Amino acid sequence: MLLVPFQLRTYGVILYLALAFPLGIGYFVGTVVGLSLGISLSVFLIGLPILAATIGGIVLVASVERVMARRLLGADIPSPAWGRSEASRLRDQVQTVITNPILWGSFIFVLSKLAVGTAAFTIIVFVFSLGLSLLGAPLYYDMPGASVGLFLPDPIQRELSLVVPWEQFEVGISFIVRLTSWEVSTLPGALLLSVLGAFVLLLGLNILTAGGWICARWAELTLNPGKVEE
Hints:
Blueprint: H1 8-40, H2 47-73, H3 90-98, H4 101-135, H5 137-140, E1 149-150, E2 156-166, E3 169-179, E4 182-183, H6 187-222
Antiparallel strand pairs: 1-4, 2-3
Helix pairs in contact: 1-2, 1-4, 1-6, 2-4, 2-6, 4-6
Protein name: Putative 2-component system sensor kinase
InterPro entries: Put_sensor_dom
Keywords: Kinase, Membrane, Transferase, Transmembrane, Transmembrane helix
């Protein structure tokens, strides 16, 4: 856990997750628009090339994603064996491609990329914006016009109680938690915030690394569901 910031693989995971959001948007829009146009225009035959181009795009994207998952996440994804159809009729060849589980796995992965990218983008922005701002508090806490600390519109007060029945009596403990605004105006307070920022960054990097591990397993499951080449 403590060595995560010093491992090169950590920043490969962050790069993969940071790219997931813009790529996910492009994948989702391209796939949905391509399939919608292709299916709706297939009665006029012009939709068939659109469908073919969309399927080809999904296959191409999946190939690129396999490389990214191997290089950045360390995923174990061999090159898939699509298989060759010996059918002479075009209809049979198309059916072979459409029913291939690798294509459907790639389709699921491409559509799921947007959800993965949205979650990753949210975590990355939150972790680095909060962590770096806290970490750098000693550099700007005393600048004119700067306010560093926790600022609440109203104090938050909660009463916590624990009551345990004992024969005819009730024995318990109760205490009040009150959270109010807190402004840092001294160097020790700013250094305390800096330590908190380092902890936020360390925790966030570990969460992102765990997310990268999950993404690697998801890529292995969806991008190679069929047999692989020997």
